[in-house]
Structure formats: structure tokens, C-alpha cells
Amino acid sequence: MPGRKDPGPSVKNKEQYEALRDRGYSKEKSARIANTEDSGTKGGHAEKYEDRTKEELYEQAKKVGIDGRSKMSKSELIHALRNN
């Protein structure tokens, strides 16, 4: 996009980063999502959060960088994952 500043070398999937920014996501959240291992892959095959164990939710929260996850209940982890 013309006029856009390059997000830098720390962003692994720049195309996804820009798409998220265009949708109104913050720079931090866009970078966090664009830097996940499976960034940019289409899926829709993920298990529902409610069907996962608390440990699985914790690992996903860790992967995306959610702070305070060690003190969260399963429902709090689900909420944090859906809203971060």
C-alpha cells in the first residue's frame, strides 16, 4: 500500500500484518498474529475452544503472548483468546 511504513524485519508475514491493520487491529496485535507459526494459513479445522483442555488453551495463549494466562481459569483463557 502506498504511504505505508514497512513494519520491519520482526514481522514474519507482512501481508497478513497489513490486512489486519486495514481491519483496524492494533500494531501490536497485528504483529503478534502475523508472527504465529501458522500465520496466513487457511483452516477452519481447529477444535472449538470449549472442547480443548485448559492446558491446551494455556499453550495457545502462551503462543500468542497473552499476559496473566497462568492465573486464568479455562473460561477466562477462552475469553482472552477470543478477544486478543
UniProtKB/TrEMBL annotation:
It comes from Flavobacterium suaedae. Residues 1-55 are annotated as: Disordered. It comes from the Bacteria. SUPFAM superfamilies: Rho N-terminal domain-like (SSF68912). Residues 55-81 form the Rho termination factor-like N-terminal domain. Signal peptide: none annotated. This is Rho termination factor-like N-terminal domain-containing protein. Residues 1-31, 44-55 have a biased composition (Basic and acidic residues).
